Amino acid sequence: MIKLMLVEDEPQALNRFRNYINSYDGDFEIAIEATNYDQAIEKFKEQEVDAIFTDIVIPGGSGLAFIEEIKKLGYKGVVVIVSGYDNFNYAQKAIKLGASDYLLKPIFKSDYFSMLDKIMNQVDGRQIIHNKYYSEKLPQHVRKAMKYVERNYEREIILTNVSKVACVSSTYLSSSFSKILNITFVDFVKYYRVEVACKLLENVDLTLEEVAEKVGFCDNSYLNRCFKKIKGISPGKFRTDLMEKQSYEEK
């Protein structure tokens, strides 16, 4: 279950967003609702969430100040800014602070659903790689397969070869991933490679073609397609946003 936090002071907008989330066909739970800055900070400290939607103008402060504060508190999840102001400076600062996107009101259901799709891909990927990966509760053959991917992601990975290492049939291994992790083995490999690509993109001396080769994608175009599907943005945009954020933090 992906836990969301909504920071919105307009009752009608809050109710509309709540209805959008409840009608979305996905595992989302509204864990926190806040209507002002102080309340948002207080509730944020009480419970962990995976993603946050925050208005840019809230009583007692601002969405941008809220993002700055939760980043100081160690938050590393998804943040989406919601605003009634088409202001480039707001959007630029939001991205530098690490916001995933900037939605302009009025926000229609299709736009909100698209954002929830992106959040689900991003959060699911992180949970699968970082949380479930190290769980001792996972069957041994699944952990063996994950470890194989960790050690060989830069090479071609063939399910039949992995199944031999995991000491099970390829059919059983494939069904185990779908059943236990809610993801196919092929998609797990893509998620892992994209996570490694994110770290490599911090090195500006590497071209996108070199990053693609180092993580096992056949070329830059395939890296771009997989990266955009999982992260919601292209690897080039991810690198640009990362550089802008680092530049902002150094000032």
Description of the molecule:
By secondary structure, this protein is α/β, with parallel strands linked by helices. 59% of the residues lie in helices and 13% in strands. The protein is built from twelve helices and seven strands. A five-stranded parallel β-sheet has the order 2-1-3-6-7, sandwiched between helices. A two-stranded antiparallel sheet has the order 4-5. Strand 6, helix 4 and strand 7 (101-104) form a beta-alpha-beta unit. The longest helix has 23 residues, at 109-131.
Summarize the helices and strands and which ones pair or pack.
Blueprint: E1 2-7, H1 11-23, E2 28-34, H2 37-46, E3 51-55, E4 57-58, E5 61-62, H3 63-72, E6 78-83, H4 88-96, E7 101-104, H5 109-131, H6 140-152, H7 159-166, H8 170-181, H9 185-200, H10 208-214, H11 220-231, H12 235-250
Helix pairs in contact: 2-3, 5-9, 6-7, 7-8
Q: In one word, what is the shape?
A: globular
Biggest β-sheet: strands ordered side by side in the sheet? 2-1-3-6-7
Class per helix and strand makeup: alpha/beta
> Hey, roughly how much beta strand do the residues contain?
5-15%
- Give a count of the beta strands, DSSP E runs of length 2 or more: 7
Characterize the largest beta sheet: strand count, sense, and whether it forms a barrel.
5 strands, parallel
Could you tell me how far the N terminus lies from the C terminus, measured between alpha carbons in angstroms? Answer: 38 Å
Helix count?
Answer: 12
The value of Rg in angstroms is 20 Å
Mean pLDDT: 86
Helix content estimate: 55-70%
List the secondary-structure elements in sequence, H or E: EHEHEEEHEHEHHHHHHHH
* Poorly predicted ranges: none
